[in-house]
User: What shape does this take?
Amino acid sequence: MRIHLFFALITAFSFLACGGKNSATLQPNNPTATPTVEKVAVTFNADSAYASVQKQCDFGPRTPESAAHKQCGDYIVNQFKHYQLQVTEQKTQVQTWDGKTLPCRNIIAAYKPEAEKRVLLCAHWDCRPWCDADPDEANHKKPVMGANDGASGVAVMLEVARLLKDLQPAYGIDFICFDMEDYGAPYWGEESAPADGSDWCLGSQYWAQNPHISGYRAEYGILLDMVGGKDARFCREGYSLQYASHIVSKVWNAAETAGANKYFLREDGTWALDDHLPINQYMGIPTIDIIPFLDGPEGGFSATWHTVNDTPENISREVLGAVGQTLIQVLGSETF
Ligand SMILES: [Zn+2]
Assistant: This one.
């Protein structure tokens, strides 16, 4: 994904209005902001999630048409099946900014597929073919390993899926691994790319317009993107506040209960052009993005973003655990 600067500028006023409203309801000192919710007694295993990050990276960068992409896709399918979920693969082809037609494989795993009330969790599993943000220009045409930008979100979802046997939610959960999120044009292809950023998030754009079940609905969605970086600090992302501020409140409150407020800051972050956008815009399912935002003059998501340093060594078990335990808290205290 990328930071959506243009949109941030033209929507600055609505963002401020929205942010003002939310900062009032999200203040930790506001007695109505943090309902007394019991801590969910299921423990997310961060070592297990880290092992999955390592496993995905061991295949190599999961770029389109690579052997690593095929093998990792099979691994993800098999893991979800192993946890007794119903897996649907959505295989299609998408048009890319560089005039190619490339295969796209979205992987959807359903817990209690018959349940009417559902929660959607999602992440992208593909890797970017270019380290175009690397400080060393010689690396710009090398693929990103995607330990954080790809594998981390999938790893957290797989560990949540494993724990459903303990959590036993009464409602349904869909885990969606989106393909072709990170194929957006690098700087050398900008002139060939659409101005609206639609060269990114190709898998989620396809699914949101062609869901695997016609008329698909979920009560809300949570997207995980780069949820394992050592430098992670999660701020409230702009589109998440615009489309789903009540879910932002729910998740940030859960983070506090789960003891993860060191990483979930009650601060506004950036606007991320990411997989939650087509879900909000095409399907109207309120969906937030848990994505890091670095403070400081350079901003950005992470120091390793789109560089050769996005490797397992730079993944923090503690961060994976903080995000995972927050999700367990959200799912375990859900009342519908
Ligand atoms: Zn990326």
Remarks:
- The two ends are 32 Å apart (CA to CA).
- Strands lie at 2-3, 86-95, 101-111, 118-124, 172-178, 220-224, 234-236, 264-268, 272-273, 287-290.
- The CA atoms of residues 235 and 265 lie 5 Å apart.
